[in-house]
Amino acid sequence: xxxxxxxxxxxxxxxxxxxxxxxxxxxxxxxxxxxxxxxxxxxxxxxxxxxxxxxxxxxxxxxxxxxxxxxxxxxxxxxxxxxxxxxxxxxxxxxxxxxxxxxxxxxxxxxxxxxxxxxxxxxxxxxxxxxxxxxxxxxxxxxxxxxxxxxxxxxxxxxxxxxxxxxxxxxxxxxxxxxxxxxxxxxxxxxxxxxxxxxxxxxxxxxxxxxxxxxxxxxxxxxxxxxxxxxxxxxxxxxxxxxxxxxxxxxxxxxxxxxxxxxxxxxxxxxx
Length: 272
What we know:
Helix content is 44%, strand content 19%. It has helices at 5-13, 21-24, 35-45, 64-73, 84-93, 130-139, 159-165, 184-194, 208-224, 228-252, 254-258, and strands spanning 54-58, 76-81, 97-101, 114-120, 140-151, 196-204, 264-271. Helix 6 packs across helix 8 (184-194) and helix 9 runs antiparallel to helix 10.
C-alpha cells in the first residue's frame, strides 16, 4: 500500500481554491463555466439519490462538491480527504458536507453505508489507485452509483501534452506525475472486478475544451478579486459562453476521442 503522506503534505501547502466557492456551495450546477464540470454535473444528475440520503466524496477537499450535490439533490454528505487544510475549510464554510480525514485506500466506513460515492481528480495522486476503487464500491450500497473522474494515462497529443512538450510545467502545481495517471480501460476493469457494472465511460478535455476550461478558470480567479459587480457579471456570462461554445469545441475533439486520447476520463458505475 503506497504511503499517503507526500500527497497530504502537498495539499497542506496548496489548499484548494475554487473561485466563487461561497456562491457555488448553494448552486445546483446551474452556474457551470467549465466544460469538465458540465460533464460531471450530467453524471451527478443521473445518480439515483433521494432527499436526505448520504453520499461520499473521496478527495473531497473543502466539501464544495458535496455542497453542490446537496443543492442539486437534497443529499447529505461526507468529504473525505487526507489533507487537513481543505477539511478545515469544509468545517468552517460547508453547507452540508461533513469533513472526515481518511485515506482513500482504507476508508473508515462500514460496507454499504452510502447511497452513492464520487471522486474527482483524486486517483491520479495515488501510486496504486485500484484499491481506492475497491473501497468506493465497498462503502456504496447495492444499486448505488459511483462517479469517478481522473487524469488520463492516454493523454498523448492532447492540450496538456503539447504544453509539456513546449517546456511548460503543467504537473508540479497540481502534484501530478504522469506515471500515476489512470488508464480508462483499467479503471473500468477495476470497477467490474470490485463488484460494479460500468454504465458509462467518457473522455473529457482532449484539446480545445481543456484550453477553454483553463482560460475560463484564470478569468474566474481574476474576476473574483475585482469589484462585486465584476464577479456577478462573470457568474452570469461565463455559463452562457460555455454553453454556446461547448458543442463546437467538443465536436472539434472527435479525432482525439476516436484515438482514445484525452486529459481526463469519467466513469459511472453501479454496485451490483
